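Notes continue from the previous slide.

Worked example: a multi-chain complex. Inputs as given:
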Amino acid sequence: MTESETSIVPRTLQVALGERSYPIHIGAGLLGDPAWLTPYLAGRQVMIVTNEAVAPHYLARLKAGLPSDAMVRELVLPDGEATKTLASVGLVWDALLEAGFNRRCTLIALGGGVIGDMVGFAAACYQRGVAFIQVPTTLLSQVDSSVGGKTGVNHPLGKNMIGAFWQPRAVLIDTDTLRTLPAKELSAGLAEVIKYGLIRDAEFLAWLEDEMTALRALQPEALAWAIERSCRLKAEIVAEDETEQGVRALLNLGHTFGHAIEAHQGYGQWLHGEAVGVGMLMAAELSHRLGWLNAGDVERTASIIAAAGLPLEAPADMGVEDFLTRMRLDKKNVDERLRLILLEALGRAVIHDQTPRELLEELLTAFPRS
Amino acid sequence: MTESETSIVPRTLQVALGERSYPIHIGAGLLGDPAWLTPYLAGRQVMIVTNEAVAPHYLARLKAGLPSDAMVRELVLPDGEATKTLASVGLVWDALLEAGFNRRCTLIALGGGVIGDMVGFAAACYQRGVAFIQVPTTLLSQVDSSVGGKTGVNHPLGKNMIGAFWQPRAVLIDTDTLRTLPAKELSAGLAEVIKYGLIRDAEFLAWLEDEMTALRALQPEALAWAIERSCRLKAEIVAEDETEQGVRALLNLGHTFGHAIEAHQGYGQWLHGEAVGVGMLMAAELSHRLGWLNAGDVERTASIIAAAGLPLEAPADMGVEDFLTRMRLDKKNVDERLRLILLEALGRAVIHDQTPRELLEELLTAFPRS
């Protein structure tokens, strides 16, 4: 008996979006059990899209969870951000049309955020929209892309520039898929989990402090709970602000600094979650300099980020001006308003646009580099 | 003083779609008057997309109707159905990103159905959706694409296979743009206008019989009224059936026969409206054979189609089997159910799936060829 077979009853979270509502099922060993996929198929035509890293581990198991009369096609693309392009979407459309699939077909995205975003966009635009099921296999995609309906691909002139809002019919999260995830990527996913605690849920943050070892050891109950709570927190925020005008910006805690790091190092050098981890610590430090967090709060933030296996220092070669330029706050934009997500307390983030520029520059000067 | 300047007050029709509601403004001389465009711009960034046939006539006039502080870019693509591709959509996205346009930009589609459908799709997917204004310059696009929100492009393996539902912020119909439309295309647009009368509005059909000469002479008041009534009838039908399950199928009167003609002749040989004109007459003939229309009704149908300058005969080289094959009713599909849009009376179309196959074959044998 494998560990997953001893596991807890799967958890289900309903994302409430009127007639576009859908469930997120979370548990160990869900893949391969027809109970979790069959109810969400629009018809018999099923196209599974995955990548070369995921397919050898989970494609056969996923197919075992489809009804025997399904007409199943599969498309296996290269792994990595380079797959998140219009060319890949074109391959999906070609495959759908070559298979003669109609409006009642279902696309299943088996993989991480790249596959989920790209396949979701393919589904959004095939015959003006077909059914789509997400089976995210990385912790980051499980806690981030499962909620919000954002799909899309990169353009040579900008990331995520082409896309659509398109909701899945269901999200199926099998925590067993994390067993083959590189530890570094598990840590990167944990950065986003910690983020939900920091911005909105002090109780969850305390739970994460207690359970971080269990999470990194892939203990199924701990994982399922962390994923469910993260998805629930994101769903609450998205429901309060579908059009991304206000509170949804809180989800960007750590992202302004983090994007600066990612962009400066060249995308793909630092994992997104690693950069966000450092960015959240920078936000906590700045919040301390504003008098909101005390030294102990910053220490707790650093400790949990470290416990997740994430770096605590910014890149050695990144100077203050490098940060300001990437944050569009360089000398050409002296009038640009600082708009940052900061922490009034652990578990309570705010959008703040009154940070004195000097304070930001002090932080950027003092923050440790490695 | 040109004729347009003597014209009537523009008509406005509101398409009711909740928060996605938008107006259709119809009149002569609207292009070039800032009153009709300015209220619908999302911000200062404006991208006009048009084609080489339309640009020399109307691009400058359209630009004169934009506010002086607008940042205007333009993209002029080749004329014709070959422009309705993902490659063209890619050119629009390239141009938007090269111009640095953000989510508050506005796309304006200046041209016929190809430009409208393609640019609408580009708007639907640029940064997950930006504002879009339609300025249709053919009668067909004015009475068809103005309502319904269907956008998209062709794929080598199928027409309109890739697309999205995306509503414009406004539709601006300047009947003066019909002055440069080839007479054949005006007639093709009139086929769709007649269709609205046949399926749902006997009074409008009678009005069209009286005013066909005025319409073909481009009399502005008659044009504006015909366009408004057509758009209103389509809007009513779409509102009753947004998801295209029921009554919306009535819009396909004449299209099953018409598509068979277009496909058999090779798309682009017959104009869509020409094929639909013959198809509507075939539907009227079949309705007569079912005992619904009398001989006088069929005669009226033929007369108004002829008065619009449209052909009344199917292609000489198209046999009964050619029709059946294109309608997917050939020998391989003997069990296929006939599902046709027919006329219970002039002004009252129905979806009918009980036509005896022999009756259809009799019609196809007897219908005149040229």
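Summary box: Chain A has two domains: 3-179, 183-366. The two ends of chain A are 45 Å apart (CA to CA).
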